[in-house]
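Worked example 4.2. Below are the chains of a multi-component assembly; read each line carefully before continuing.
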Amino acid sequence: MIKVGIIGATGYAGQELVRILLSHKYADIVWYGSRSYIDKKYSDVFGNMFKLVDSTCLDDNMEALANEVDVIFTATPQGLCASLVNEAILNKVKIIDLSADFRIKDVSVYEQWYGITHKSPQFIDEAVYGLCEINREDIKKARLVANPGCYTTCSILSAYPLMKEGLIRPQSLIIDAKSGTSGAGRGAKVDNLYCEVNENIKAYGVTSHRHTPEIEEQLSYAAGEPVVINFTPHLVPMNRGILVTAYADLTADVTWQKLRSVYEKYYGGETFIRLLDENVCPQTRWVEGSNFVDINFKVDPRTHRVIIMGAIDNLVKGAAGQAVQNMNLMFGLDESEGLMLVPMFP
Amino acid sequence: MIKVGIIGATGYAGQELVRILLSHKYADIVWYGSRSYIDKKYSDVFGNMFKLVDSTCLDDNMEALANEVDVIFTATPQGLCASLVNEAILNKVKIIDLSADFRIKDVSVYEQWYGITHKSPQFIDEAVYGLCEINREDIKKARLVANPGCYTTCSILSAYPLMKEGLIRPQSLIIDAKSGTSGAGRGAKVDNLYCEVNENIKAYGVTSHRHTPEIEEQLSYAAGEPVVINFTPHLVPMNRGILVTAYADLTADVTWQKLRSVYEKYYGGETFIRLLDENVCPQTRWVEGSNFVDINFKVDPRTHRVIIMGAIDNLVKGAAGQAVQNMNLMFGLDESEGLMLVPMFP
Amino acid sequence: MIKVGIIGATGYAGQELVRILLSHKYADIVWYGSRSYIDKKYSDVFGNMFKLVDSTCLDDNMEALANEVDVIFTATPQGLCASLVNEAILNKVKIIDLSADFRIKDVSVYEQWYGITHKSPQFIDEAVYGLCEINREDIKKARLVANPGCYTTCSILSAYPLMKEGLIRPQSLIIDAKSGTSGAGRGAKVDNLYCEVNENIKAYGVTSHRHTPEIEEQLSYAAGEPVVINFTPHLVPMNRGILVTAYADLTADVTWQKLRSVYEKYYGGETFIRLLDENVCPQTRWVEGSNFVDINFKVDPRTHRVIIMGAIDNLVKGAAGQAVQNMNLMFGLDESEGLMLVPMFP
Amino acid sequence: MIKVGIIGATGYAGQELVRILLSHKYADIVWYGSRSYIDKKYSDVFGNMFKLVDSTCLDDNMEALANEVDVIFTATPQGLCASLVNEAILNKVKIIDLSADFRIKDVSVYEQWYGITHKSPQFIDEAVYGLCEINREDIKKARLVANPGCYTTCSILSAYPLMKEGLIRPQSLIIDAKSGTSGAGRGAKVDNLYCEVNENIKAYGVTSHRHTPEIEEQLSYAAGEPVVINFTPHLVPMNRGILVTAYADLTADVTWQKLRSVYEKYYGGETFIRLLDENVCPQTRWVEGSNFVDINFKVDPRTHRVIIMGAIDNLVKGAAGQAVQNMNLMFGLDESEGLMLVPMFP
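Applying the procedure described above to all four chains together yields the following structure tokens:
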């Protein structure tokens, strides 16, 4: 059994890790870290875990934890993982960081967009960007995996094949994304109160959202040139789900079938990517609770653009599910172990 | 492997059966019956099943089906199962009926509350009321199980121990129930449109809801005398979940601890009933997607009443989950096989 | 023009006062009090007021305010109004208190249920309970009006005629109430986050909610004897609306028509009470945004009980609308001035 | 008093017309037309209108109606108004058509996108496109006004000043729009059931939505050249509200202040357009129930694009409110008569 420690187990992503790992055949959570709820029973914080988890919340002592577990998930605010990790720890355990600390290779870009100083830049190079469908082989050998952001996972996977094959003009990409409210976290803020979110939609972080450079970096690798994009997230009154609608200029006259064959080239063998039938639009409800990414697109001959659409569950493929997928790869397990979750509807 | 046929696979309860059975180790769905969608791919109706179910919808020919499967689930409107079943069929397959056709022993009560003539009253006596926690042994031997209604499951299980032990005055019981909208079914009706349900709560079927006689019959067995109650269902703007708040006069001065010990006597060994800690109120979000029933209660010394609260997911313990629990019992499997679903939050 | 000051203008009820008073022909808000947002533009807090309100938030100095306005609304937490008011102030301005400070005549009951010491018990006797349909004449002469609670308004008005006429057994009354989330206030609490409230229903304050003694006191006046009831509030995933479902034993064999004539006797001339047609259940969506109370009931000959149902918008008739109705009465205006709000649907 | 007839009074837009006109000082609804509900009391269809509207639904006989009223609103499916209108009728009454029949000047474009034959193309030229802020003077003189679509109102008004002033490259415009569910109408369709819409977001009509040519036509007038755009609508789980997020290449290096001055040039004197302060994003909740359009934008120096955002209530400024605004203009009333609706929050 893989012994698992979670730092940040009482956020939404941390709790989703617990939900998934409880049904994982080869993993056993031994450390529920939560600075805010130390000594409180985990199931008192999340009533769904009553009778399922009997543990009490512990602190975030990564040194101590490293001696007790095989893998640490950090589902914490930006900066914390980078401030705790060190060589000794990495020699003992594998770390899957759900924060942004090790996602961006250029530390100055990280520090500019996140507004904090990186505490352990020496590990950035080593860290593997944990987008399994793209970096599978590197992940298998990694000590430290930077689990991608929710918006970025959906955005990158949706656009990747066309960017990689040069079928869209890199600088023309515009990503309009919509997220359920669990993406905003469990902090007690007026902006996230029920009455403020319900019956409302808004854009936020326009031109400045921190997932922008992460998307740009990964798509730049695909394009083979620096990519600068517009990325606009929106808050939607629902618990879970991210929908990405992306627009790009086509570099050639192509049909849906042609583009589809390109997607199949990259994703044809992927368990968690579902390429939808022609004219079917992704909907977040069809992936809720699962690790699937549903992707489709439409060619617009009037504007010579392609409209790409992708849907994920932000807490699963956008966070905890992908983290477990990374764990499976890092420990040589079947990549889909514990992740064959049937989407729950309605 | 148990070969499973579902008649009514494209309603919400039928689809939930599919969701649950896809992860069941010993069951294999071979017949997706749906009169409205014959010849249509099942995953075209429910996009969550894309790449998971490759089958096409079939009709509801129970005779033909009986030759192909080991168990038939009927998740259909009242009257259909009773109109299809016969001795020859029952000799070949087990039937778990999610409709009300075989729940009520007195056929005249059924016909009065449901307003239809029962087509096969000869099987009513044989049919076992499939409330596993109460009728477990009978279910194991049954050919025909009447799967309880959603409101009734939550109502009966919440009140049963106190009624059985004579701790509440039977005729004083008042059940105020609240349900998510999936309980209203997938029919295209103006009343169930998003804009009609959202930002609204209403009572319906006041004094006349058809789950009333079903609750009364079962609680009468417990009380050892005919029980007549008030039952008022309400429609709540959410997808899933039933919360029952019930009120009854206590027959003695008792403490919470005393009543708790009574609940433990009946449910202490039950996998799917969670008796909550003192002062914790059941909430539907903590059982969503799972087969759990969360129960608690409060003694009010001012009024000498007990307020009993129960929460279930109406599509799981209130329909498909309980149906699978029944199947497990009927086929000698571990009762919780395929049902250790961790509640999904948020 | 009546000059109006609001203390607590940045809560949900305070903001609703602003919404209503902006369309009131004879009122002019001159003081937007909000301790938390002093010096901030009001329309920066509530974007709906952009270009409609140009004022900046002020503090809660009731002494200063009393010199500038004709009426003060206090939409603040319990205790604040009682701690600020004094004889000099009451000699200058009328006060309509939306908190509970002056609702309960027995100060010990107040202190027990609210857990705070009353700071100005000397004004409790004088204060008029501002349920306009019942205390109209007293309100007209009042200096200090205690605006009723949201649950209490709906509960009392629904049951009052039957209690007054002795048609129900007082001690048998059970009130099961359901409220939208704006009733929980605008404080930043995890429990009220979108993801915690959405897809959930729960009871809270079972046997201990602070609106209980308020309902009991007013219904005791109606019954002519002390009334002790069960009152159970529930939190519903919607912004606005309260639905009350109440159960009581009938003291005689009566028809719907008979009870209806009793309701007409009390409410036949009321502008804001709508007695629905037989078999029509109140729904919160039909009163949203308006000052209406929709009432109906059902006689159950099987249990000899009546099930009474009432619906209001908790922020209008349950708070700000009723407060303005009180203001209209106190200043000799048409009672419905500014309150003929057509319910908004959907 | 202006005597008003409504054909299609039982759809969401028709009912919103009723809500608004009930508070209009100079209008009186005398005909509630609804083919589906003939002879049914209007308040039996919409319970919010109980005690406010005493009328019964009538048919859609426009000939008869023309003799009884001064203005007819048609809030009906595409094609109906065009099939009913004729010269005799237009000589008697003014018509404000909320359908698309007279919005598009090129009848072949209409017939192609809507897939129906236009029954009275002879009136297309005469019809005035009822976007009050742009066509005010023509509307005043019109017999027949084509009330703009909901998406189009928000899209056009958001982009108009920049298009008109040549500050954005016309062919670069991409509009990503999000709408509440009332925009989908009150028809009983599975797709619009609560459980299908709740907890979901999806794009629909990608590259083919019928509001596309309407937006293109109007923006072409502004640009002085044919404009071809991408327009993608999305369905959001909320009752009301449209948010438009639009992307366009800037034709010059400009600041927010520069663009703001352009918006002020066009909208500075407009009652219903609110230009928000820098860095404030429009949110649908701040316009709910009102006739306001909230607009703002962000300049992205990294991509040389502007991101324009606009928010309206789809049933008010996107339908009924704008229709009343047109009526006010056509009858020489104050344009804002009956429309100074304070947005309702929460």
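Take a moment to check your reading of the output against the notes. The interface with chain A takes residues 171, 174, 176, 178, 180, 195-196, 198-204, 206-207, 228-230, 232, 234, 236-241, 243, 245, 247, 281-285, 288, 298-300, 302-303, 305, 307, 309, 346 of chain D (CB under 8 Å). The radius of gyration of chain D is 20 Å.
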